[in-house]
Protein backbone atom coordinates (compact mmCIF):
# COMPACT_ATOMS: atom_id res chain seq x y z
CA UNK A 1 0.00 0.00 0.00
CA UNK A 2 1.15 3.52 -0.72
CA UNK A 3 0.88 5.98 2.12
CA UNK A 4 0.58 9.73 1.82
CA UNK A 5 3.16 12.12 3.22
CA UNK A 6 0.31 14.35 4.40
CA UNK A 7 -0.28 12.58 7.71
CA UNK A 8 1.42 9.96 9.87
CA UNK A 9 1.26 6.38 8.62
CA UNK A 10 -0.34 5.14 11.84
CA UNK A 11 -3.21 7.63 11.28
CA UNK A 12 -3.70 6.36 7.76
CA UNK A 13 -3.82 2.76 9.00
CA UNK A 14 -6.34 3.71 11.69
CA UNK A 15 -8.41 5.42 9.00
CA UNK A 16 -8.38 2.26 6.85
CA UNK A 17 -9.67 0.27 9.81
CA UNK A 18 -12.27 2.96 10.56
CA UNK A 19 -13.51 2.68 6.96
CA UNK A 20 -14.01 -1.05 7.42
CA UNK A 21 -15.79 -0.45 10.73
CA UNK A 22 -18.29 2.12 9.45
CA UNK A 23 -18.92 0.00 6.33
CA UNK A 24 -19.56 -2.93 8.72
CA UNK A 25 -16.91 -5.09 7.04
CA UNK A 26 -15.60 -5.33 10.61
CA UNK A 27 -18.70 -5.38 12.83
CA UNK A 28 -19.03 -4.46 16.49
CA UNK A 29 -17.44 -7.11 18.69
CA UNK A 30 -15.21 -8.45 15.93
CA UNK A 31 -11.50 -8.90 16.52
CA UNK A 32 -9.27 -6.47 14.66
CA UNK A 33 -6.15 -7.74 12.91
CA UNK A 34 -3.13 -8.01 15.19
CA UNK A 35 -0.37 -5.42 14.94
CA UNK A 36 1.88 -8.10 13.47
CA UNK A 37 -0.70 -9.07 10.81
CA UNK A 38 -1.39 -5.44 9.93
CA UNK A 39 2.33 -4.69 9.70
CA UNK A 40 2.91 -7.67 7.46
CA UNK A 41 0.00 -7.01 5.11
CA UNK A 42 0.70 -3.27 4.84
CA UNK A 43 4.49 -3.63 4.86
CA UNK A 44 5.04 -1.27 7.80
CA UNK A 45 6.85 -1.50 11.10
CA UNK A 46 4.88 -3.48 13.74
CA UNK A 47 5.21 -0.52 16.12
CA UNK A 48 3.43 1.68 13.58
CA UNK A 49 0.60 -0.83 13.28
CA UNK A 50 0.39 -1.13 17.08
CA UNK A 51 0.16 2.65 17.35
CA UNK A 52 -2.77 2.64 14.90
CA UNK A 53 -4.62 0.08 17.02
CA UNK A 54 -3.85 2.01 20.19
CA UNK A 55 -5.20 5.21 18.64
CA UNK A 56 -8.50 3.43 17.90
CA UNK A 57 -8.65 2.30 21.51
CA UNK A 58 -7.98 5.86 22.75
CA UNK A 59 -10.92 7.09 20.65
CA UNK A 60 -13.19 4.37 22.07
CA UNK A 61 -13.57 2.75 18.65
CA UNK A 62 -11.77 -0.39 19.82
CA UNK A 63 -11.15 -2.04 23.14
CA UNK A 64 -8.21 -4.18 24.10
CA UNK A 65 -8.62 -7.52 25.78
CA UNK A 66 -5.40 -8.53 27.41
CA UNK A 67 -3.87 -11.54 25.75
CA UNK A 68 -6.34 -11.73 22.86
CA UNK A 69 -6.08 -8.39 21.05
CA UNK A 70 -8.22 -5.47 19.97
CA UNK A 71 -11.94 -5.69 19.29
CA UNK A 72 -14.39 -3.21 17.76
CA UNK A 73 -16.37 -1.62 20.58
CA UNK A 74 -20.17 -1.71 20.49
CA UNK A 75 -20.20 2.04 19.83
CA UNK A 76 -17.20 1.90 17.49
CA UNK A 77 -18.97 2.76 14.24
CA UNK A 78 -21.00 5.53 15.91
CA UNK A 79 -17.84 7.04 17.38
CA UNK A 80 -16.12 7.05 13.97
CA UNK A 81 -19.15 8.68 12.35
CA UNK A 82 -19.34 11.28 15.12
CA UNK A 83 -15.64 12.13 14.81
CA UNK A 84 -15.79 12.33 11.02
CA UNK A 85 -18.98 14.40 11.08
CA UNK A 86 -17.36 16.91 13.44
CA UNK A 87 -14.27 17.01 11.23
CA UNK A 88 -16.39 17.54 8.12
CA UNK A 89 -18.39 20.37 9.68
CA UNK A 90 -15.35 22.11 11.18
CA UNK A 91 -12.79 21.60 8.39
CA UNK A 92 -14.21 20.51 5.05
CA UNK A 93 -17.45 22.50 5.00
CA UNK A 94 -15.73 25.90 5.41
CA UNK A 95 -13.51 25.05 2.40
CA UNK A 96 -16.60 24.08 0.42
CA UNK A 97 -18.32 27.35 1.37
CA UNK A 98 -15.28 29.34 0.19
CA UNK A 99 -15.33 27.51 -3.14
CA UNK A 100 -19.08 28.03 -3.48
CA UNK A 101 -18.68 31.75 -2.89
CA UNK A 102 -15.79 31.99 -5.36
CA UNK A 103 -17.73 30.13 -8.05
CA UNK A 104 -21.18 31.59 -7.42
CA UNK A 105 -22.71 28.24 -6.49
CA UNK A 106 -25.97 28.69 -4.58
CA UNK A 107 -27.62 26.60 -1.89
CA UNK A 108 -30.34 25.83 -4.43
CA UNK A 109 -27.67 24.37 -6.77
CA UNK A 110 -26.39 22.21 -3.93
CA UNK A 111 -29.88 21.14 -2.85
CA UNK A 112 -30.77 20.02 -6.39
CA UNK A 113 -27.59 17.95 -6.63
CA UNK A 114 -28.17 16.52 -3.13
CA UNK A 115 -31.72 15.43 -4.02
CA UNK A 116 -30.43 13.76 -7.19
CA UNK A 117 -27.71 11.99 -5.23
CA UNK A 118 -30.17 10.70 -2.61
CA UNK A 119 -32.61 9.50 -5.27
CA UNK A 120 -29.82 7.66 -7.10
CA UNK A 121 -28.48 6.12 -3.88
CA UNK A 122 -31.98 4.97 -2.89
CA UNK A 123 -32.51 3.36 -6.30
CA UNK A 124 -29.20 1.51 -6.06
CA UNK A 125 -29.98 0.38 -2.51
CA UNK A 126 -33.39 -0.92 -3.61
CA UNK A 127 -31.82 -2.69 -6.61
CA UNK A 128 -33.32 -0.31 -9.15
CA UNK A 129 -30.70 0.75 -11.70
From TrEMBL:
One MF term in the entry's GO annotations: DNA-binding transcription factor activity
Cited InterPro entries: Tscrpt_reg_HTH_GntR, WH-like_DNA-bd_sf, WH_DNA-bd_sf
Residue span(s) of domain HTH gntR-type: 7-75
SUPFAM superfamilies: Winged helix' DNA-binding domain
UniProt KW keywords: DNA-binding, Transcription, Transcription regulation
Domain of life: Bacteria
PANTHER family with a match to the protein in the record: HTH-TYPE TRANSCRIPTIONAL REPRESSOR YTRA (PTHR38445)
Protein name: Transcriptional regulator, GntR family
Lineage of producing organism: Bacteria, Pseudomonadati, Spirochaetota, Spirochaetia, Spirochaetales
Amino acid sequence: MRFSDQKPIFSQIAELLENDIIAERIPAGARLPSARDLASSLEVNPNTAARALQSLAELGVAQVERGTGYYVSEAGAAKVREFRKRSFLDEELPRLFRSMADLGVTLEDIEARWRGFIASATEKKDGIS
